[in-house]
Amino acid sequence: MTRHRELFRRYVRPQWPRLIVLTVLLFGNIAIELIAPLWVSRFIDGVQSGATNRALITIAILFMVFTAARPIVMGIAGYLSEDVGWRSTNRLRTDLVRHCLNLDLSFHRKHTPGELMERVDGDVSELAEFLSFFVFGVVGRALLSIGIIVMAFLVDYRIGLTLVVAAAAVLIILRTTQRLAVPKSQALRAAKADMSSFLEERLGGRETIRANGGRAHLFEEMDGRIGVLVRRTRAAMVASRYSSSLLELMVALSAVAVLALGAYLLPSGSISLGEIYLGYYYTDLLSFSLIVVTMHMEGLQRASAAIRRIGELTAIQPTVVSGPGHEPDRGSLDIEFENVDFGYGGTQRALDGVSFRLAAGQTLGLLGRTGSGKTTIARLICREQDPTGGAVRIGGADIRDYTLPQLRGLVTMVTQDVQLFHATLRDNLTLFDDSVPDERLLAALDQLHLRKWYESLPDGLDAVLVDGGGSLSAGEAQLVALTRAFLDDPDVVVLDEASSRLDPATERLVETATGRLLEGRTGVVVAHRLHTVRALDHIAVLDQGRIQEIGEQTKLSADPTSRFATLLAGGTS
Amino acid sequence: MSHLKATFALIRRAPGWFALSAVLQIMRSVFPLVPALVVSIAFDRLAEGSGLNEGMWVLFAVLIGAVLGRVGSLFGSVAVDGWTDSTTGGLLIRNTVARVFRRPGAEALPHSTGSTVNRLTTDSQTVADMMVSTMVVVGSTAQALFALGVMASVDVVLTVLVVVPVFAAGLLITFTSKQIKRHYARSREAAGEVSSMLREVFRAVQAIKLADGVDRVTDRVRELSETRRARTLKSRLFSQVMLGAVFNSTSGLGAGLVMLLAVSRLRDGTLTVGGIVLFVSYLVWITEFTTLFSQSLAEYKQAAVSMTRLDEVVDDGAGLAALVAAPTSRSAVAAVSRDTSPVGPLTQLSARQLTYRHPGSDRGIEGVDLDVRRGELVVVTGGVGAGKTTLLRVLIGALDRDAGTIEWNGVEVDRPSEVLIPPRCAYTPQVPYLMTGSVRDNITAGVDVTEADIERAAYLSVLDADLATMPDGLATRVGPRGTTLSGGQAQRVAAAQMLVRNPDLLVFDDISSALDVNTERELWHRLRADGTRTCLAVSHREIALAQADRVVVLRDGKVVASGRYEDIRDSVPELSHADPTDLVDNLVSGQ
Fold first, then answer.
1. What's phi and psi for A354, nearest 5 deg?
2. Are A239 and A371 part of one and the same domain?
3. Shared-domain flag, residues B387 and B510
4. Is residue B342 very low, low, confident or very high in pLDDT (cuts 50, 70, 90)?
5. Residues facing residue A336 across a β-bridge
6. In-domain check, residue A413
7. What DSSP string runs through B342-390?
8. Taking Cα atoms as reference points, which of A523, A488, A535 lies closest to residue A334?
9. Mind spelling out the 3-state secondary structure of B153-187?
10. Long-range contacts made by residues A476-480, C-beta under 8 angstroms, separation at least 24?
11. How far is the CA of A244 from the CAs of A181, A250, B70, in angstroms?
12. Each residue's pLDDT tens digit in chain A (573 positions)?
């Protein structure tokens, strides 16, 4: 419950002016709903008692005004409700995106984008929908139901009692049957989410699926999922009608009760025909209101589940958090690993007691087999993860002492897996930073010798890049990533297999640019090919999370017993 | 094909079910009218002064019976609608996916993956919901006609007054339909932008974090969300708030009018109290019908937008007819892939004058000739943007060539995407794309193979040593898009997927990019060990170039040199590496 209150306080309460207008409309609507049938009742009694035409016409006109006014009130209120719903959940969505982005990368390696979408968009939209109808659907109808019972008692206490009994029965029925329906609708939602991630993955991999003859298999898998959807939709739709069906039966029974009561009392004159009508009408209205309330109670349950899941997500805290802050001595930052361990838990450690020091402005190439720990070292320098033992220092300070923005300002990493946005080249280079002037972007492209390539793009910086390949080759995507790094102007550069996937011509291009990027900066390069490390000052050879050998490149290559020299000679290390 | 015709075509996909749905809808809609009729008779009896007599109890029994009938037909109707709804949605998804997979595999779709998935799921649901609500309208129309009939039997003039708002509403809807459609389309578009932005953000978490871009990206999400809010509300304002309000007010006024006119009729006895009760109750149903009708018209218009959006997922020009086509059976899909009739086992694959231009740019390949004979290794190399990947894609039909011919054993292949697939040919792309699931799932990817086949493929792709270190071996989960594997492992799993299919021709697009020297050497060693495999590979590594029977060098989309590496290396700048450390590669490959 505290979670609900917290959400309400942060996201809904700021909408208070709209909420006030909504409340006024809400009470207006309740009044109209309660009073309108009174006019019909008076009309009937007027006819029975022989009232004047004039009196009857006045009643008819009043009824007309009330019934005509209600949809307008409802229309405005519906619009406002939805506005409140969207506004508050938009803020929630933005906060959640920020929260997710601040979580550790290890978290993101475990959760698919589809899964997070389901939280950030699916669950939040569930909340938006609920909030949009909450005021009128739940609060309004609940108040109306109380109003109806009060009015019924004013008409006749026996009718009032009948309605109380009916309302109690209705609530019991609803509470029991709802439990049957909820699991079915949850199962349906799960099937839809599964379908969505299935489609996303298969669309992404369509080149391979087609080329390797996977279409038949794709259809087999898809048909299986459609079959599940069909079964679950039917089950959910049938289950969703349990309560309303029982209710209809209940309404019929209450109507019979009111009419029987009326028929019994009418000859004694203790009740009028109009009052019987009113009792009958209120029975109907009460059941309808309670249906609406329960319908949205189901929404409330779904919203609660959504809030719980959102809560679970917000409860996850990043382990990589900002330090207290440390002003670095920019321009001369060394990197030091002191007895650093890193283990994914259980099995073999990814890094085991790694120590080295790389002086400021020097460069280090990391060599080793897949899984030897090269990438882990790169990730630790960028604080994608924190070591499980030992310390990583940059500029003499433990990198956990820097705030994250400070560290991000110092260290830039170019990853192998380039992630492009379906956005303009400008946005892809600056990551949506509008304050970077075009001249700076063009200058960076010049430095990379990318001006010619850039000029071949039809719309220049406004060229929209398409995700999933298409407009850019993998090599070109790499060039975009390198330009991103250039723009950051960091002190420490980490290149993770940055030159892979490039042909010799581009590699030369990148090497020139990388050389310029590394000039006067401290650099760590994860490499798979030997020639990429030849321009670097130092070499470390890793195996199974340990440094097997580290030293100046010239010395290592001159020493025929070194592993590096063996590698150069083409032998296995 | 018009949207209306497409809707009818969807009904024709399962005419029996839709007919049953209509019958049940009519039953479930007409039954609820009975209680009001019974109550009106009861009121007339009460007005005449009768008490709680036997006749009253009979009326009550009829009332309860009608409700039981209603509930029974409701359950039947809902079950049938659940079927039609999900089956229609499924058909739309299936047909659209089928169209996507008929297009060349490497051709970019007109919209981002996020937006495409959004269209496939949300828009197909909108269309399916429209189909169901059309059936609801059928029932509701029967209900309105029944109600009007009963009312007309009481008083024709009063009844006509009730019908007027319905016509007025119909006119209003027609008048505003364009706005509804436009606003809805704009709101859907904004929703698609939010989804695709979020999807991309969650894919690019690493890049965003490392570039300290969290705030900027979050701001962008907020802007897009606000646009969605504004547009959704605008669409809602038109379709529901304004129309809904005008509508219900009109019918409310109609109800009041009935009471006004009833005054004189009650005096002369042509209308009774029971009649008024009946009119007021039935008016609620008529109002509901008009609301429903207007909503379903709006829904139909929205569904039309959704149909167009689904159609636009693929720009093959096939139109709505393809969207609502009868589903191709799975065996038919499979038959296409198994069709081996045009060609036999590979002796020679030849391409002549292959030409392809990337849309909207002047890049691609032009007039490329290529030959691969049984048992050969042919390596394609060249600078960035030289067209290496494009050449492979055009050859296997992942891109539609603009010109040129492809021959398999001298027989012309018109649609390589249907022919150059297993068992003739298989492919490993430059960037491997794995699916959530186990390593085994990713290797087999649906083909029926033995454990020995998988082991052989894992051995050939040098995956065996990695499998031994993975906690669950072949059953190890690869994570979303294979992210728990290293780049090299993912690429070798993709290679194993190709190899387990045991095709005549292996096509690699730069398998070496994520592999270290030793692993790559081992890979080529294993693949070439028995000399029977035919390979076409893009590479720029000496290790591959030196073993090749032929090296084809591309520059700006054209072949500038072709021949054995040692014969052409000195005359082609692409092959003379500037960096002396490439000696390493020489040493490695020279062993």
1. -90, 125
2. no
3. yes
4. low
5. A357, A393
6. yes
7. T--S-SEEEEEEEEEE-TTSS-EEEEEEEEEETT-EEEEEESTTSSHHH
8. A523
9. HHCHHHHHHHHHHHHHHHHHHHHHHHHHHHHHHHH
10. A476/B384, A476/B385, A477/A418, A477/A420, A478/A418, A478/A502, A478/A506, A478/A510, A479/A448, A479/A450, A479/A453, A479/A506, A479/A509, A479/A510, A480/A418, A480/A420, A480/A425, A480/A428, A480/A429
11. 11, 10, 11
12. 677 788 888 888 888 899 899 889 989 989 998 998 898 899 889 888 888 888 988 998 888 888 888 888 888 888 888 898 889 999 999 999 999 999 988 888 878 787 888 888 888 888 888 887 776 778 888 899 999 999 999 988 988 999 999 889 888 887 788 778 878 888 998 899 889 889 988 998 999 998 998 888 999 999 999 999 999 999 999 998 888 888 888 888 988 999 999 999 888 888 899 999 899 889 888 887 887 787 777 677 778 888 888 888 889 998 888 889 888 877 778 999 999 998 755 456 788 889 999 999 899 999 887 678 888 899 899 898 899 889 999 988 999 999 988 898 889 888 777 777 878 888 888 888 888 899 998 888 887 777 877 887 777 888 887 654 455 666 677 778 888 888 888 889 998 764 444 556 666 666 777 777 787 789 999 876 676 777 889 999 888 888 989 999 889 888 888 888 877 765 443
Query: How many Å apart are CA A458 and CA A353, to the nearest integer?
Result: 52
Q: Look at A369 and B64 and tell me if their CB atoms are within 8 Å.
A: no
| Min Cα–Cα distance to chain A from B146, Å | 20
**ipTM value of the model?**
0.85
> CATH code at A429?
3.40.50.300
Q: Which residues of B, range 178-207, sit inside 8 Å of A by Cβ?
A: 194-196, 198-207
Distance linking the first and last C-alpha atoms of chain A: 61
Enclosing domain of residue B253? 3-323
Tell me if B376 is assigned to some domain.
yes
Domain co-membership, A429 together with A463: yes
- The 10s digit of each residue's pLDDT in A174-194 is 778 877 887 888 899 889 988
> What residues have CB less than 8 Å from A249, skipping those under 6 apart?
B64, B67, B68, B71
Q: How far apart are CA B106 and CA B129, in angstroms?
A: 33
**A1 and A58, same domain (yes or no):** yes
- The pTM (predicted TM-score) of the whole model is 0.73
Q: Are residues B308 and B348 in the same domain?
A: no
Which residue from B220, B498, B513 is facing A500, i.e. has the nearest CB?
A: B513
**Most A-contacting residue of B338, B433, B440, B554 (CB-CB within 10 A), to test interface:** B433
For chain B, count helices (H), then strands (E).
23, 10
Among partner residues A72, A415, A505, which is closest to B206 by beta-carbon distance? A415
Strand-by-strand arrangement of the A492-496 sheet: A411-414, A492-496, A522-526, A363-368, A538-543, A546-552
Q: Which residues of A touch B35 (CB under 8 A)?
A: 252, 255
The answer as to whether A244 is a domain residue is: yes
Any domain includes A324: no
Q: How many DSSP H helices and E strands does chain A contain?
A: 22, 10
- The answer to whether position B173 is within a domain reads yes
| Residue B334 within any structural domain of the chain | no
